[in-house]
Amino acid sequence: MALIWTNDWNIGIDIIDEQHKRIVDYINALENANMSTTGKVLQDLVEYTESHFAFEESLLVEAGYEFAGPHKATHANFIKRLNSYQADHERGEDVAAKLYAMLGTWLLHHIKRDDVAYVDAVQDNLQRIVTNKQEDGWLKRSLKVFFG
User: CATH number for the domain including 75?
Assistant: First the structure.
C-alpha cells in the first residue's frame, strides 16, 4: 500500500516537509517497480536524498544545532544502506519490495525522532535567515547549490 503523507509527518519547516514529501514519492515509485525501473528509481532516490541530507545538514550547522554531527552520521549510515541495496540490485537481486518496506519505516522513524529534535533550533535561525533580504543570503544560495 502506498505511503500517504499526512500532516502529522510535518515537522513545521516547509522546505524540509516538501523535500520529505518528494522522498515519499520516490518510495511509492518502488511499490510496483520491476527490475528495470527499480534501478532508475533507486538512483534518483539516492541522488535526491543526498541533496536533501546535504541541505538539511547545512541548515543544522547554520543554526548551531548541537547534534548536527550525530544527525549527519545517521544520514551517512542511511546512504550506506541505500548503496548496499543498489549493489544488490546491480547483482540482479529484486530489491524493490524490501527497499520499499525499509524506506517507509526508516523515513517515518527518522522524521518523528531525529528531525523533530532540531526544529526549535532551526526555526529560530531560519526566521532570521528568511528575513535576510540580501541577494546573496544563505537560504537563497543554499537552495541554488542543492536544488539548481
Answer: 1.20.120.50
The C-alpha atoms of residue 135 and residue 64 are separated, in whole angstroms, by 23
| In-domain check, residue 114 | yes
**pLDDT (tens digit per residue) in 52-90:** 999 999 999 989 999 999 999 999 999 999 999 999 999
- Measured from the Cβ of residue 85, the count of other Cβ atoms closer than 10 Å reads 21
- Examine residue 6 and state whether it is found in any structural domain, yes or no: no
Q: In the numeric block, which cell numbers belong to residue 121?
A: 533550533
Helices (H), 64-134: 68-90, 96-109, 116-130
Whole-model pTM: value is 0.82
Contact 95, 88 (CB under 8 A): yes
Q: What is the pLDDT of residues 8-28, one digit of tens each?
A: 999 999 999 999 999 999 999
Cell of residue 64, nine digits = 548551531
